[in-house]
C-alpha cells in the first residue's frame, strides 16, 4: 500500500476514536447532570414530604395518646360497672327480703283484724263497735267456741267516701282482742255461708295487706279447677296451697307449681280412669 493511503487511513481511525471518546464523555456528562438533577429533586421532595407529614405524625401521636387514655378509662369504667351491677344485685336481693319482712310484719299487726263488708249505711250510728258485735251475735249460727260476745279492742269504718244509693255499703274494720276468737268467728262465718244483717248480705274476711291479698288471689284459678275435680285443698298462711289427692298431701308456694301438679297428676289420673 502506498504511504499516502496509509497515512489517510490512520488519520481517519484517529478521528473516529477521538469522536467516540468525545461522545462517551458527553454521555457521561449528561448522565451525571441528570443524576444530580434527580437527586436534587428527590431530596427536595423528601423535604417537602417530611414537612407535609409532620403535622400528620403529630396528630397520630396525639391520637395514640388519647386512645391509650380512653382504653384506660374504659377499663376503669368497666370495673366500676361490674362493681355497681354486683351492688345493685345485692341491693335488689336485700330489698326483696326487706319487702317480705315488712309485709310479714304488717300482716302480723293485722292478724287479729276482721273486715266486715256490706254493713247497711247508718247502722253504726257513730259507734262501730256495737254494730260489729251485732254482726257476730245475730248473723253467726250457734256460736260454738264463742262462749260470749267477743271483746273488740276497736272498730272503725274503712276510709272511703259515703256510698250513694244502690252502691255497696261501707265496710267495718274491727280488731278482736283474742286471735283464737277471731279465727273462730271466721270458721263460723264459713260454716253458715250466707250472713244477713238488716236484710243486707254481709261478708266477713280476714284483714290482709294489699300485697298478700294479691298473692292469695293468684290461686283462684287453680282453686276453681280443684273444686270442679272434687279435690280437697286449703289455702295456708301466708300464701301457700295445700292439696290432698288420694293419700298424698302436697304444699305449693306458687299458683304455677300447683297448676302444674293438677295438670300432670290429678287431671292425668282422672283421664286415665
From TrEMBL:
<feature type="coiled-coil region">
    <location>
        <begin position="60"/>
        <end position="115"/>
    </location>
</feature>
<feature type="region of interest" description="Disordered">
    <location>
        <begin position="1"/>
        <end position="20"/>
    </location>
</feature>
<keyword id="KW-0175">Coiled coil</keyword>
<protein>
    <submittedName>
        <fullName>LINE-1 type transposase domain containing protein 1</fullName>
    </submittedName>
</protein>
<dbReference type="InterPro" id="IPR004244">
    <property type="entry name" value="Transposase_22"/>
</dbReference>
<dbReference type="InterPro" id="IPR042566">
    <property type="entry name" value="L1_C"/>
</dbReference>
Amino acid at each position: 500500500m502506498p504511504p499516502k493511503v496509509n497515512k489517510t487511513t490512520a488519520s481517519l481511525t484517529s478521528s473516529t476514536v477521538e469522536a467516540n471518546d468525545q461522545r462517551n464523555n458527553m454521555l457521561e456528562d449528561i448522565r451525571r447532570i441528570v443524576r444530580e438533577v434527580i437527586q436534587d429533586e428527590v431530596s427536595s421532595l423528601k423535604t417537602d414530604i417530611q414537612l407535609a407529614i409532620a403535622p400528620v405524625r403529630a396528630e397520630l401521636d396525639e391520637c395514640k395518646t388519647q386512645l391509650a387514655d380512653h382504653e384506660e378509662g374504659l377499663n376503669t369504667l368497666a370495673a366500676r360497672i361490674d362493681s355497681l351491677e354486683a351492688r345493685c344485685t345485692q341491693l335488689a336481693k336485700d330489698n326483696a327480703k326487706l319487702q317480705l319482712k315488712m309485709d310479714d310484719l304488717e300482716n302480723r299487726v293485722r292478724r287479729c283484724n276482721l273486715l266486715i263488708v256490706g254493713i247497711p249505711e247508718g247502722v253504726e250510728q257513730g259507734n262501730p263497735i256495737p254494730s260489729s258485735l251485732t254482726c257476730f251475735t245475730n248473723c253467726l249460727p250457734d256460736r260454738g267456741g264463742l262462749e260470749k260476745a267477743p271483746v273488740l279492742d276497736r272498730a272503725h269504718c274503712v276510709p272511703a267516701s259515703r256510698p250513694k244509693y244502690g252502691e255497696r255499703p261501707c265496710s267495718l274494720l274491727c280488731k278482736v282482742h283474742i286471735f283464737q276468737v277471731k279465727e273462730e268467728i271466721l270458721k263460723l262465718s264459713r260454716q253458715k255461708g250466707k250472713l244477713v244483717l238488716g236484710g243486707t248480705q254481709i261478708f266477713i274476711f280476714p284483714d290482709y295487706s294489699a300485697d298478700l291479698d294479691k298473692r292469695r288471689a293468684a290461686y283462684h284459678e287453680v282453686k276453681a279447677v280443684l273444686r270442679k275435680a272434687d279435690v280437697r285443698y286449703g289455702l295456708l298462711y301466708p300464701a301457700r296451697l295445700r292439696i290432698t289427692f288420694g293419700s298424698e298431701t302436697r304444699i305449693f308456694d306458687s299458683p304455677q307449681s300447683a297448676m302444674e301438679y293438677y295438670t300432670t297428676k290429678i287431671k292425668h289420673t282422672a283421664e286415665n280412669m
